[in-house]
Amino acid sequence: MIHDIEPRIFNNSFKNKKAESRDLFLSYDGDKVLVREDKDKLWYPSFSDFEKQYPELINTAQFLFTIDTINYYLVEEKGLDTVDGWTYVTTGRFRTEIKYWRSFAGAVGWQLNRWYENHKFCSRCGKTLKRSEKERMLYCESCGFQVYPTISPCVIVAVHDGDRLLLTKYAGRAYTNYALIAGFAEIGESLEQTVLREVKEEVGLKVKNLKFYKSQPWPFTDTLLAGFYAELDGDDTITLQEDELSLGIWVKREDIPPAKLNISLTSEMMEAFRTGTVEL
Ligand SMILES: [Zn+2]
Question: What are the residue boundaries of the structural domains of the chain, listed by start?
Answer without folding.
Answer: 10-117, 119-150, 152-274
